[in-house]
Amino acid sequence: MRVKICGITKPEQGQAIAQLGATALGFICVPASPRYISAKQIRDVVSQIPRHIERIGVFANTSCLEICQVAVAGDLTGVQLHGDESPEFCTQLRQLLPTSVEIIKALRVRNSQALVQANLYIGCVDTLLLDAYHPQMLGGTGKTLDWENLQQFCPSCPWLLAGGLTPENVNDALNQLKPNGIDLSSGVERAPGDKDLTKVAHLFQQLEARKMLADAELNSKIPHEFFDRREIHLPSHS
Ligand SMILES: O=C(O)c1ccccc1NCC(=O)[C@H](O)[C@H](O)COP(=O)(O)O
After folding, report:
1. Which positions fall inside the N-(5'phosphoribosyl) anthranilate isomerase (PRAI) domain (predicted)?
2. pTM for this entry
3. Between 20 and 30 A from 162 (CA), which of 56, 91, 174, 236?
4. How many angstroms is it from 227 CA to the middle of ligand 1?
5. ipTM score over 0.95, yes or no
6. Contact 181, 4 (CB under 8 A)
């Protein structure tokens, strides 16, 4: 499962979080955010992390040109559109960015209409991300979604779950939903843009324990299923 830790601003924290197990680091390229980071600063973080770690720039309501410039200057592997970008805007951006650069469209879920809206982006973007709606803030709100109401959400493209995830509630969320990845920011922070490495380590311990449990369950099923199959394939004596 993809695990994106968003709102990285410090090279040493980016490096430590990559070592702890993040598959992606997120950089907030929205100037109004307390987690804002420039393309030059993104480069400083990126220079400290292994190349296989994804590097996602988060943008909101800016131009395709600005996104493309930061994507190149920041050596990004993906861009996340966190504002009110239309499917047409995403299609235009797709034509301008190299195909290797992932486009993630974030939907801030206010009501069930947002989930219907998700269908409009299929084919225009690579991945969807569901985040909580907040009247004043675009992201990093710490607010959780109503997971129970999301159980029917099953888009025909990969999707990431965001919104108020913490080391304490991540298992609850994943027991109810099966996203292709998760995205956390304020739930693993001391202050906006200042990640708490103890909380990040706790998150990965929780995910590791979950994986071990799933593996153990799978292993306990194998002998039974294997035996069943052998019986089915026994030669007939008739
Ligand atoms: O984090 C911000 O400050 C931010 C500002 C403007 C647009 C998007 C922003 N964050 C987007 C993210 O990807 C966050 O990780 C996501 O909203 C989840 O945040 P949280 O609820 O704090 O885990």
Report:
1. 3-206
2. 0.91
3. 91
4. 49
5. yes
6. yes
